[in-house]
Amino acid sequence: MDSIIKVDGIRKIYNMRKAKEMFVAVDDVSFEVEKGEILGLLGPNGAGKTTTIKTICGLLVPDKGSVIINGYDSVKKRNKALRHISAVLEGNRNLYWRMTVEENLEYFAGNRGMARKAMKPHIDKLLTQFRLQEKRQELVNKLSRGMQQKLAIAVAMLANTDVILLDEPTLGLDVETGYEVREILRTIAKKEGKTIIISTHDMPVVQDLCERTVIINNGKVIADERVDHLLQLFKTSAYQINLQEPLTEEQQEMLHFEFPIHSWEGLNLQVSLQEEQEIYALMDILKRNHTPIETINRTEVNFEKVFMQLVKEEAAS
Ligand SMILES: Nc1ncnc2c1ncn2[C@@H]1O[C@H](COP(=O)(O)OP(=O)(O)OP(=O)(O)O)[C@@H](O)[C@H]1O
């Protein structure tokens, strides 16, 4: 694998001074990111996504483990490693709200050592790419949340780094702007060969945009898979069964024991199986207890269902 980022067994402990306690936010997290890949870092609230992103971009130093960026250790060779990375951590809060769109881009370009003449075509290209040309003279505080978010990503693109880290890039955006941001990110990755790591709760972002996902729960990696593979895996195992009669208590107990990932509402039973053949064992349990089955269907799977199930499975293990 031609990886540009290698996160190797990182651990991050926060010292809670007031409570005089330590909190392990991320523990033994490892994954790699290939050049040109879009990776979705997914997890419930407080799972450790932002901590992981901040550790990758050098804002936090891991207590254990390492982050290697393009061959350079992010702590030992900090400057060389971080040269390859730009990040949008708090979206619109990275911007100067009392400056215009263009002034923000010029300011940050200048900050990165770009000469005034050289920055002009670069800024024009970004304004076109992010469809912000008409807003170039607008103050940032007059822009919509979506436009501010687009500008924050455009500012990060100024550095023209190989890797872009985005923490919740579609948070608070309406469906249309969320879609537009996704399209822009897809273009950046595909046409410009950028590597993108996105931390998100937004399942359509993962399903639609990311090739691979690393799912973090309680500070640990619980899945590291190609998104299409995960969807396929769950597609073959999720069933919806309509019963003619409700489940007896005995059946409920048996099901709970044999198939931990299931739920039911009235006559509708949803179940996820480890292997396809298990459907016969399930039918057997229902038959033995004289519960006639009306229909059995494979459930349509979206990424949200996959995610919920993986987190549930992990909690049950
Ligand atoms: N500076 C800090 N001091 C103490 N605890 C912290 C600090 N920052 C984060 N935490 C805790 O570490 C855990 C992981 O936080 P983190 O922000 O990385 O999670 P997250 O997955 O990004 O969550 P969310 O999706 O809610 O943003 C949480 O329990 C959080 O409360």
From TrEMBL:
Keywords: ATP-binding, Nucleotide-binding, Transport. The keyword Nucleotide-binding applies. InterPro entries: AAA+_ATPase (IPR003593), ABC_transporter-like_ATP-bd (IPR003439), ABC_transporter_ATP-binding (IPR050763), P-loop_NTPase (IPR027417). GO terms for molecular function: ATP binding; ATP hydrolysis activity. Pfam families: ABC_tran. PROSITE patterns: ABC_TRANSPORTER_2. SUPFAM superfamilies: P-loop containing nucleoside triphosphate hydrolases. The keyword DNA repair does not apply. Residues 5-243 form the ABC transporter domain. CDD domains: ABC_DR_subfamily_A. It comes from the Bacteria. Coiled coil: none annotated. Belongs to the ABC transporter superfamily. This is ABC-2 type transport system ATP-binding protein. It comes from Thalassobacillus cyri. The lineage of its organism: Bacteria, Bacillati, Bacillota, Bacilli, Bacillales.
